[in-house]
TrEMBL record:
Leader peptide range in chain numbering: 1-22
A Pfam family that the UniProt record links to this protein: Pro_Al_protease
This protein's record includes keyword Disulfide bond: yes
SUPFAM superfamilies assigned to the protein according to its UniProt record, in alphabetical order: Galactose-binding domain-like (SSF49785), Trypsin-like serine proteases (SSF50494)
Protein name, entry field: Streptogrisin C
GO biological process, one term: proteolysis
Keyword Protease: yes
Organism: Kribbella sandramycini
Length: 462
């Protein structure tokens, strides 16, 4: 079932310091809109009318004028889909909001769409496959006596019973025993109970495992294999251009990349699946069903990808949007806020980290500076960011903080009719709840002409 994503997304402009609201509610009327994506940390929305552009600006996002609106793109997609079903060498096809076209990826190219306005054919070298793999140490589950898959996201039904979501091609057998270890050891429950809780067809690649055995519990904490666990706080839809990470059963287990396309039709050879998301992150056999996240938000269940990672391929991995799976079986995602800290200061080490290096702030360029935190546990909320420097027009600047998980927080947004100088020292409070350790990045973009400055240093207290 192809999902028709409404293109407009409204952002809250009331708070100066806030994470990107990529999952905010869209307006009910989608006329004049044609898709969305993240570009240099900013949400951009394709529009075809001045009225739509005004609504986007009022919401705090950036409009991009395009030729085709969403209805025209959907009609073009339907035409492409009809032709595509008759082809044998296509890897994927779907709408690209950035180019305002339907993009078809074909092994060795294709002439089937020659002369079709608005369709771009890209030649690729590899076919996708739904992944399976040999046994390696890690956090996985085993469907019967088959090769292993990966646990997606735990959820509960209306009666409070425990389940977890995973890939449909891992749960295709009805009432199959599910194990927590190889060789049919440590049974945890049953997959595809009654034969109605698994789909691996055009509608999607998603399934449900019921956790029924004594002693098994479920948790909202995602295994990141060596780094502190990420606690899932909710679900969201992925957006082109944003950073996502996935956890799976095959080494290196935790891998991140960029969303390259959403709502794509994928040809796995043995099955065609609609509505999937592609990313540049690598994945391996055995990762199927695993968790995809945007920061601490659940976005998908691993579906497949290249048989091995291809350098430079923006479509290395594929996932099924998790929200559709939750809605399909009326399940509630298990979420948490992290465990309370019984010790007010379990790690007395430093919590403030700084970078004193000077970086010029030039017109229409971005100054980028990083610091590496070695602090344990979660961040304070709010955490503190202190920026030191000079610039003749603060209103020209977009200042943002990027966390180790890839989540963006805007400290200062570009805009204003009167220029004021950037204070020599300015401190921002950021309402974050992240893993403290890792590389934090400060980005200062100058969006206006005629004013210059220098970032002379900055620090973060986590």
């Amino acid at each position: 079932m192809r999902r028709k994503f409404i293109a407009a997304v409204l952002l809250s402009g009331a708070l100066l310091v806030a994470p990107v609201r990529a999952d905010a509610e869209p307006p009910p009327d989608s006329a004049g809109f044609a898709g969305r994506w993240i570009e240099n940390g900013r949400l951009k929305i394709a529009v075809t009318t001045d009225a739509a552009a005004a609504r986007v600006r009022a919401a705090g996002a950036t409009p991009q004028y395009v030729q085709r609106d969403q209805q025209q793109l959907d009609q073009l997609m339907a035409k492409v889909d009809k032709i595509a079903r008759q082809q044998s060498n296509l890897r994927s096809w779907g709408i690209d909001p950035i180019s305002n076209q339907v993009v078809v990826k074909a092994v060795g190219g294709s002439d089937a769409f020659r002369g079709t306005d608005g369709v771009r054919v890209e030649s690729v070298r590899t076919k996708f496959q739904q992944q399976a793999g040999e046994v390696n140490p890690g956090d996985g589950w085993w469907p019967g006596s088959e090769t292993y898959c990966s646990v997606g996201f735990p959820a509960t039904d209306a009666q409070g019973n425990k389940h977890f979501l995973t890939a449909g091609h891992c749960t295709n057998d009805a009432n199959q025993a599910a194990y927590g270890a190889i060789s049919q050891a440590n049974r945890l429950g049953t997959s595809n109970v009654g034969g109605s809780r698994s789909i691996n067809a055009r509608e999607g690649d998603m399934g449900v495992v019921a956790v029924t055995e004594t002693g098994w519990t479920t948790s909202a904490k995602v295994n990141t294999y060596g780094s502190p666990a990420v606690t899932v706080t909710g679900a969201a839809d992925a957006i082109v251009g944003e950073t996502v990470c996935h956890s799976g059963n095959t080494a290196p287990n935790w891998e991140c990349g960029t969303v390259s396309a959403v709502n794509q039709t994928i040809n796995y050879g043995n099955v065609v699946v609609e509505g999937l998301t592609t990313t540049s992150a690598c994945s391996q056999g055995g990762d199927s069903g695993g968790a995809w996240l945007r920061g601490d938000k659940a976005v998908g269940l691993h579906s497949g990808g290249n048989s091995s990672c291809v350098t430079g391929d923006q479509d290395n991995s594929i996932f099924q949007p998790v929200s559709e799976a939750l809605a399909k079986w009326n399940l509630t995602l298990l979420t948490g806020t992290g465990d309370p800290d019984p010790d007010p200061d379990p790690e007395p080490g430093p919590r403030t980290f700084a970078n004193p290096t000077d970086y010029p702030i030039r017109d229409f360029q971005v100054a980028v500076s990083t610091v590496k935190s070695t602090a344990a546990g979660r961040t304070a909320s709010p955490l503190k960011v202190t920026v030191e420097g000079n610039h003749t027009c603060l209103e020209d600047l977009n200042i943002s903080l990027v966390s180790p998980s890839g989540r963006w927080y805007y400290l200062q947004r570009y805009g204003g009719s009167t220029c004021h100088p950037l204070p020599a020292t300015k401190t921002y409070s950021v309402p974050a709840d992240e893993t403290a350790a890792g590389t934090w990045t400060l980005r200062i973009g100058d969006n206006g002409p005629g004013d210059i400055g220098t970032l002379t240093g900055w620090s973060i207290t986590v």
